[in-house]
Design brief:
The complex is a heterodimer of chains A (248) and B (260). Helices cover 32% and strands 25% of the residues of chain A. Chain A is α/β, with parallel strands linked by helices and 248 residues long. The chains are: A alpha/beta (248), B mainly alpha (260).
């Protein structure tokens, strides 16, 4: 469903992606792991067209990114941002129903609110949260609202950018379980970037390890622990010694 | 090599300055193109009207009131040097309507609105809210810039009109209250002296200054650097640029309107 072929991206002299090749099957949950600053977020933003890649091809369902109707392309995606990226000026329900209140997916206001409340319930939030503002919510609640917004328009593809960063282990577990459940019940294709190994084990069908701008290893999550790739082995066991330099 | 270093630095600075002018010009064209192309975001436009127009009224009113009063005192004191104290109503009217009204309102809007727009959009950028807008199929220029620019172009002339009236009223209070002017004669002199071109130029300046103020806020917000420092720089830069451009535009517009 999503194919990255020899994708390169540099910022000035800093080559972040140096030939990324990756395939994500329809309906699967791919988790990309790698250290901080290895280009995971850049790869994700290149797929969405938020950042323009320098060379190579990014193909979604047979069409190159940026070649067709951009609105139609983006309407297929939902995304949970690292810091939730909720709009401060809007109440929670309008954040969740943002896409349903404008553009080609526009619905009547009452119906959009009903859907928003239902999606909030799906992520474990009570209806009274709907009228609060993002600044009134805890970090975990904001992540849930972000998740509700990502799934509000029933997207085919959902991206999760560091979904558990900044959360306590219990809340991280709750978010991981929610993501797994929602992706499974919606039948969506998911791509998550994280360096939290508990997220990887909870969410992934397949795992790809990004290091030095290229995919060092990719395979099913069940084979991750038995892989003989030294980069992956060092990363999943959190060892300071190995081919990945601790100080980058 | 050492001898040419200052020249090279000057060249780099000049090129960077010209490049920034080009970027602002392209941004302005992009913003204008989104103002006239659907979809239109009515709620965001209404909020911008409220923030830029209605909520700026107190600061604009007080600035104009004190300036009009001070102007009356200055003209009276200055005019006394050559027995021309009687021109206070006329000079207050022409000074407020042609120059001080639009310029002071423009600068107040730059201080109050440009900074607020820049800080808000820059914060949205560093917290990935702009990226979130894009993933939600909403063009940031259309959703954030177009409503603010359009609202400023429409509402700042109205603020200038209000500022002009309040400024003249400030002069009237001082002149009739402490300088011994007859109230009816003061108002009559003011009304008789002002011409339609004075008022048209005042409102036209307001529209241009509103455009500059909103555009600079949006431009610096959208191009902000990362973190709190990025937001701070964007806010400071937006106010500096808006204030300088408003004063430069005022000079140009004064030349266009009154050099005929």
């Amino acid at each position: 469903m999503i194919d990255l072929r020899d994708v390169h991206k540099s910022f000035g002299t800093n080559a972040v992606l140096r030939g990324v090749d990756l395939s994500i099957r329809k309906g699967s949950s791919m988790v990309i792991i790698g250290g901080s600053g290895t280009g995971k977020s850049v790869a994700l933003k290149c797929i969405l067209g938020l950042i323009q890649h320098d060379s190579g091809a990014i193909i979604v369902d047979g069409s190159e990114v940026g070649s067709g109707d951009r609105d139609a392309f983006l309407a297929r995606f939902g995304m949970l941002f690292q810091g939730a990226a909720l709009f401060d000026s809007l109440p929670v329900w309008q954040n969740v129903a943002f896409r349903l209140l404008r553009g080609r997916l526009k619905r009547p206001r009452a119906e959009a609110r009903e859907i928003a409340v239902e999606k909030l319930r799906r992520v474990g939030l009570k209806p009274d949260v709907a009228d609060r503002f993002p600044a009134e919510l805890s970090g975990g609640m904001q992540k849930r609202v972000g998740l509700a917004r990502a799934i509000a328009a029933d997207p085919e593809i959902i991206f999760f950018d560091e979904p558990t960063t900044g959360l306590d282990p219990i809340m991280a577990g709750v978010i991981n379980d929610l993501i797994r459940e929602i992706v499974t019940e919606m039948g969506a294709t998911a791509m998550t970037i994280t360096h939290d190994m508990s997220s990887v084990r909870a969410i992934a069908d397949e795992v790809a390890m990004l290091h030095d701008g290229v995919i060092k290893w990719t395979g099913p999550v069940t084979q991750m622990d038995t892989s003989d790739d030294p980069h992956l082995d060092q990363f999943i066991h959190g060892r300071a010694d190995g081919p990945i330099e601790a100080v980058r | 090599m050492m001898a040419t270093a200052p020249l090279a630095a000057l060249g780099r600075a000049t090129l960077a300055f010209l490049a920034s002018i080009g970027r602002v010009a392209l941004f302005a064209l992009d913003a204008l193109s989104h103002v006239v192309r659907p979809p239109f975001y009515g709620r965001e436009f209404a909020i911008a009207l409220l923030n830029i127009g209605w909520l700026s009224l107190p600061v604009v009113g007080l600035t104009a009131l004190f300036t009009g009063g001070a102007l009356a005192l200055q003209i009276y004191a200055g005019g006394a040097r050559f027995n021309a104290e009687a021109v206070v109503p006329q000079i207050v009217a022409i000074g407020m309507v042609r120059e001080l009204g639009p310029v002071l309102v423009g600068l107040m809007i730059a201080a109050r609105v440009t900074s607020s727009i820049a800080a808000e959009i820059a914060t949205m950028k560093v917290t990935e809210q702009i990226d979130a807008l894009v993933t939600l199929s909403t063009h940031p220029m259309k959703y954030l810039t177009a409503p603010r620019v359009l609202a400023a172009v429409l509402v700042v002339p109205a603020l200038v009109g209000v500022g002009d009236v309040i400024g003249i009223f400030g002069g009237y209070i001082v002149a009739t209250g402490s300088l011994g002017f007859n109230p009816a004669a003061y108002l009559k002199n003011t009304a008789n002296f002002l011409e339609a071109l004075d008022i048209v130029s005042s409102l036209a300046k307001g529209a241009v200054f509103g455009f500059i103020a909103a555009l600079m806020g949006c431009y610096f917000g959208m191009t902000s650097g990362r973190g709190a420092q990025g937001v701070g720089r964007a806010t400071k830069g937006s106010v500096e640029a808006a204030a300088v451009l408003i004063l430069a535009a005022n000079f140009l517009l004064t030349g266009i309107f009154f050099s005929i």
